[in-house]
Amino acid sequence: MKIFFILITSFFITPSTSSDTLTATQILRTNQTLLSQNKTFVLGFFRGSNTNYYLGIWYHNFNPQSIVWVANRDNPIDNSTGYLKFGDQGNFLLLNSSGKPAWSSNTTAAKNPLLQLLDTGNLVLKDSSDNTNDNNYLWQSFDYPTDTFLPGMKLGWDFDKGTEKHLTSWKITGEDPSSGDYTMKIDYHGLPEAFLRRNQTIIFRTGPWNGERFSGAPGMIQDQSNDLKFNFTYDEHGVFYYYSVTKPSMFSRTIVTSDSNVGELQRYMLVQGSWTKFWYEPEAPCDYYGECGPYGVCDKNGSPICTCMHGFSPKNQEAWNLNNGSEGCVRNTPLNCSTDKFLHRQNMKLPETTNVYVNKSMTLDECGSLCKRNCSCTAYANTDIRNGGTGCVMWVGQLFDMSVFPSNGQDLYVRLSASDIGSNKNHRVIEAIGITLGALVIVLGLVAICYLRNKKQQRSRGHDSLMNEIYSGGVERNMDDLELPMFDFDTLTMATNNFSQDNKLGEGGFGSVYRGRLIEGREIAVKRLSEDSRQGILEFKNEVKLIIKLQHRNLVRLLGCCIEKEEKMLVYEYMENKGLDSILYDKSKRHLLNWERRFNIIYGIARGLLYLHQDSRFRIIHRDLKTSNILLDGEMNPKISDFGMARIFDKDEIQTKTLRIVGTYGYMAPEYAMYGKFSIKSDVFSFGVMVLEIITGKKNRGCSDDNTEELNLLENIWRHWHKGTVMKLIDPSISNSYTESEVVRCIHIGLLCIQERAEDRPTMSSVVLMLSNEAPSMSNPKTPGFSARKTHSDIDSSSSRQDETWSVNEVTITVLDAR
Ligand SMILES: *[C@@H]1O[C@H](CO)[C@@H](O)[C@H](O)[C@H]1NC(C)=O
Ligand SMILES: *[C@@H]1O[C@H](CO)[C@@H](O)[C@H](O)[C@H]1NC(C)=O
Ligand SMILES: *[C@@H]1O[C@H](CO)[C@@H](O)[C@H](O)[C@H]1NC(C)=O
Ligand SMILES: *[C@@H]1O[C@H](CO)[C@@H](O)[C@H](O)[C@H]1NC(C)=O
Ligand SMILES: *[C@@H]1O[C@H](CO)[C@@H](O)[C@H](O)[C@H]1NC(C)=O
Ligand SMILES: *[C@@H]1O[C@H](CO)[C@@H](O)[C@H](O)[C@H]1NC(C)=O
Ligand SMILES: *[C@@H]1O[C@H](CO)[C@@H](O)[C@H](O)[C@H]1NC(C)=O
Ligand SMILES: *[C@@H]1O[C@H](CO)[C@@H](O)[C@H](O)[C@H]1NC(C)=O
Ligand SMILES: *[C@@H]1O[C@H](CO)[C@@H](O)[C@H](O)[C@H]1NC(C)=O
Ligand SMILES: *[C@@H]1O[C@H](CO)[C@@H](O)[C@H](O)[C@H]1NC(C)=O
Ligand SMILES: *[C@@H]1O[C@H](CO)[C@@H](O)[C@H](O)[C@H]1NC(C)=O
Q: Membrane-crossing residues (predicted)?
């Protein structure tokens, strides 16, 4: 795919048309382009990987080329030249070298047609003799979207004109522009919502629009910055979905991709010159359509993820036990109609709304009584959550494809037999006991953690267990052996001077690291894995192949490995300035890191982490981020090292529980330290700790256990942040190199990253945006989850929130976890 980009970008010859219009007498050849007025977009010909020509629009001067529109996607002109010209019916045509049309725009009434490429990326056809109405285009490319949804475009149905617009993926994104299998289309039946389909099969459903966002895709709306504005309208004239950017310097595109039989809806934003993936669906298993079947509710934090709605039981208990919830649930007690009651569920993704009754002017009470009177009504909810909730949507029949969100779902009222509602009370009581028990166990767990930490030096777990974990992820098992660079044992022995003590750079839980120099002069770092690793050769090779594919300027590069004589070694590029901790905490060296460098380090770590979390093909969670795992090159550029702990995730696995807790106290997120629950958000927590350490030059010490008055670093920062005296904590060695606003912003971001609840922490893409943006609106941090005593009281108060994750089952597991 990358090769392809280079191929097509190198193909364009300097634009020979400098204006932004093409008039009736002009033609555009394959070696020419048309620029938009402010040179944001360009119209021209590009070649697909099949070497055929396509007419398309892409961002000007931007590498890799990001094509937003293709005219003749299913009818390319062959590799000889073609051209674009006007026809005699107010249309414009794409002709091949023998003058036969490969594509045509619709005919118009224009006498003097004129093509213009706008800075929005919209190619419009106007009549040059008609200067009256500037925005009344006779034809526009925005009416014929391909796979890209741009600000200013409208997707959906126009009932007045009888038109419909949707997105269709490329056959292979980045390679073959012809119409692919994936579509994103809005359905107007019932309460409108959008579906991502592969051919006719629904993969993902956004849920209906609730006035603010799609009910089933809260992440589709940016929460950290208000630079994008979304809107969805539906009435008798049509159903439209569109968005806009509030700053002209902001670029955003949403595409439907198709790559290796995976189709996704993805939103990118341009951040400091590169496209950052901000959001995509389907993301978690719960996002897949019908994951838990009729009346099943999917909870991505649950284990298993599917549960039955209260008053229902699994239809197929056997499949359910095997984590296959697709057959869903059945009612425990049949409905009676006159005596039925309604169960109030909060934070839901509403069930599918294709077959519903909607009245936008009813209140919730009217809705409820209408539903109660109609025996076939199974549930109801508001259509709009704004202004305390308005409108009425009523389901008849099965409730399908529901999920629960931690905080930003909707209220749903589900019809149940009165006897089932009754038993719900007991359920609540049990829950309450569970929560109290949970709090108790947390306290015990914390005591145990602090005790263990005091007792012995924290020791990382064996390599083998980690590798087993990685392999349970089921990531590509049979990759080709050829791509793995192998080093000879003797070569490495020689390079490291027989693994001499002088060459030793350090020692970690996974083995020792040696500095080495190959005969040709290249410096390397060799990690000799501890011998007790019982992992098989094949698994080891597979892991290495996977890590080798991760390449980013903020990640330490793995060059290869060596497997010989019962030994396993990893060979990395050598980093001149070693670990960040070796400079940051060294009184004689810390001055080398002025504020600019520190900011650069923070930003670099964020980029590297974003890559691991989101941009690489695999979702990787580092799990042991700390300053000693950030290496610095000769120019003090940060590189994240030691993916040893990383648990490699399947694409659709978002949070996993582990019975073994690896990591370093002081950097561990509360839910990880206590429950062994880790997710990308636990890395965000560790990142936040590092940011605060980098700014203050002080080490966070986890539990402040030695009865000194010196507070834990995070707690200390939080206190000063509250009092407005946080600048007192800045490392004195940067005192003359910083801009106060920048430092405060970084502390602010650091505090957001160490929030107690994982859902309150931003994702790395938001962090990158916050770091790079001059004046984003950032939410105010709440009390962070620092450690021990504070955490405990915070959890107490959260028990009233009825957080579903504190179930009795997990409490049991917690006891095991804490040892
Ligand atoms: C574009 O191609 C045409 C013939 O196909 C040629 O005559 C013309 O010189 C080329 N223009 C440029 C700028 O290369
Ligand atoms: C083009 O750029 C100029 C200067 O930045 C700006 O004033 C103008 O509004 C832009 N025009 C369009 C169509 O974006
Ligand atoms: C066009 O494609 C044909 C077959 O794919 C190839 O033989 C020919 O060399 C190509 N011509 C050019 C100008 O690329
Ligand atoms: C141009 O298109 C016509 C009709 O599609 C086709 O028959 C012809 O072979 C094409 N000419 C070239 C040179 O590709
Ligand atoms: C406009 O052209 C497209 C193909 O470019 C075609 O599918 C569509 O039916 C045409 N619409 C009208 C109104 O002719
Ligand atoms: C989708 O439809 C296309 C064209 O009919 C077919 O080639 C492809 O195999 C289908 N894909 C799936 C997953 O059914
Ligand atoms: C959406 O558009 C409608 C009609 O233009 C407008 O009344 C409404 O305020 C907009 N909503 C948002 C959230 O911008
Ligand atoms: C789950 O069960 C359904 C029917 O019971 C079956 O069609 C489907 O293939 C199963 N899914 C998996 C992943 O086993
Ligand atoms: C519903 O419940 C009432 C009261 O228990 C009972 O009298 C009635 O027969 C029930 N109706 C049905 C259809 O079961
Ligand atoms: C919607 O509900 C309102 C208030 O109950 C009622 O006046 C109106 O007729 C209803 N509209 C439709 C289309 O049923
Ligand atoms: C119940 O509501 C459905 C959906 O609006 C409607 O089709 C049906 O006629 C209603 N039944 C009764 C008895 O009102």
A: 432-452
